[in-house]
User: What shape does this take?
Amino acid sequence: MPMDNIKHNKIYKAGETIIKQGDIGDSAYIIEEGRVEILVKKQNGDIENVGTRGEGTIIGEMGIVDGSPRTATIKAIEDCRLLEITHDDFGSRLESSDPVIQMISQVILTRYRDLLKRSKILDNTDGFAQIELLEKNLAAQANVVESVRIANELKDALANDDLDVHYQPIINLETNKISGMEALIRWTHKDLGFISPGVFIPVAEKSGMIIEISKWVFRKSLLGLENIQKHSTNDNEMFISINFSSRDIATPQFVNGLLDTISDTSIKKEQTKLEITERVLIQQPDSAKKTLEACKDAGFKIAIDDFGTGYSSLSYLYYFPIDTLKIDQSFIRSMNKEDKRKKLVKSIIDLGKNLNMDIIAEGVEEKDEADALREMGCDHVQGFYFAKPMPEDDFIAFMKDWDTK
Ligand code: C2E
Ligand code: CA
Ligand code: CA
Assistant: This one.
């Protein structure tokens, strides 16, 4: 557990009470040094020693999950040094975690408490009806149900070939040629119709299914580019930009997986840009750096997606092996409203260019925006002004049309 998640360092002398039975639990502790004993007061008033815990173990974890009274007293039997995890800290982590994990962890805890009560170690005052109600409430939380439902259907969609990849052209502002494309996943549900990746990608990320989906998108996109290239009427080599999530780049075999897949195709690694959002880099800088360096060494290009929205420190730009900056749509959208915002975009372009990066502006919807970006030295543009993401065949038709213009 990283140190900054642990708020306090506590010292207890031998004999001191750390946790008192019946109190509301507001902290859990990791024992760094020393030993403790766990004492339970029974209904008849007898105190039973139910065990001891030492270095590296955790105490008080039950209370911070559900805020119920402590079920035992814990005393230091040697001088102890403890790391505290507060209830608030834990609560915010739990809140930001997958709803299924939230639900299952609370269900396990209520069952465990139930078991303790049945075993007659603890007072049986609450009754089982309350536990049942609690479990029902937990399972009924709307986001739990919705998230499980989408995850299950997405699994079917992957198995049944209901997913597709669309391609959005990226235009070189200097040559006015199609320099490449971004691959974007599409899901058409048999009953519900089009479901936005903005809805199901976060679910796939939380459930872990994103790893399988990313693999699928990667293979499909490379095959797509192979076919598109076959129909190309000019000889400029196009790149393909593919989105990856934090879960993907945290997989130890990430680079090897990409290499395996690309070796089955005629696409070059240099043609392949891996898009990672700025947020991912901020969340896990050290592991991201390692993975991205391995990708870069293997020959892949790295693009930072949604640049400018993650509030990262600028030092990130030289910390990571970045080839391309994709300026987020929100900057482009506001550019022609205010001169100041245009200057901001110009500064981002200059910054990236000074660091030898390629710049792609996203979300270009107007001719004015494209003209302004060209003037500011932006390399590439992507957006509805040129084309929406489209199926492979439509892309080929668009490309033929574009090349003869
Ligand atoms: P993104 O990576 O920032 O992708 C760009 C999004 O902007 C796409 O939305 C695209 O259709 C949209 N867009 C492009 N040009 C314009 C424009 O001129 N105006 C406006 N308003 N929008 C424009 P889409 O396809 O709905 O994807 C949404 C997000 O879902 C993507 O944002 C990306 O974060 C995620 N996503 C999509 N496909 C994949 C995928 O295969 N894997 C992963 N991990 N994420 C994906
Ligand atoms: Ca993207
Ligand atoms: Ca983006």
About this structure: The two ends are 58 Å apart (CA to CA). The chain has 16 helices and 17 strands. The longest strand covers residues 178-189.
